[in-house]
Specification:
Blueprint: H1 2-13, H2 23-37, H3 46-64, H4 76-106
Helix pairs in contact: 1-2, 1-4, 2-3, 3-4
């Protein structure tokens, strides 16, 4: 999830149009805190739900929005930052599923 946060921050630094308060990094950071520090058994759910939301939302936005950074292959830096975010979200999603499975198996 930290890699996805970096990808979003780099996109913002490169001038990609994001809301004044971008929800992606905030949601990801909150999920990281929950997964690492929350003492309860279902904390890994945040590690699945947030990346899933961002992967699905980001993919749908790329299909429906011509200005989406994933469609801006003419700007290599923006495209690379977008791919970094997407890969970070996808890896976090898989890791979250594994963590959730392991947490369930332990209890």
């Amino acid at each position: 999830m930290a890699v996805a946060i970096v990808g979003i921050v780099v996109q913002i630094a490169l001038g990609v149009d994001y809301p004044t308060v971008p929800p992606g990094p905030i949601l990801l950071a909150a999920a990281v805190v929950l997964v690492i520090f929350a003492p309860w058994r279902w904390a890994p759910v945040a590690g699945v739900v947030v990346p899933l939301f961002l992967v699905v939302g980001g993919s749908l936005a790329a299909v429906g929005n011509a200005d989406n950074p994933l469609r801006r292959t003419d700007d290599a830096a923006v495209f690379a930052a977008s791919i970094t975010q997407l890969v970070g979200d996808a890896v976090a999603l898989v890791a979250g599923i594994v963590m959730l499975r392991e947490a369930r198996r332990r209890h």
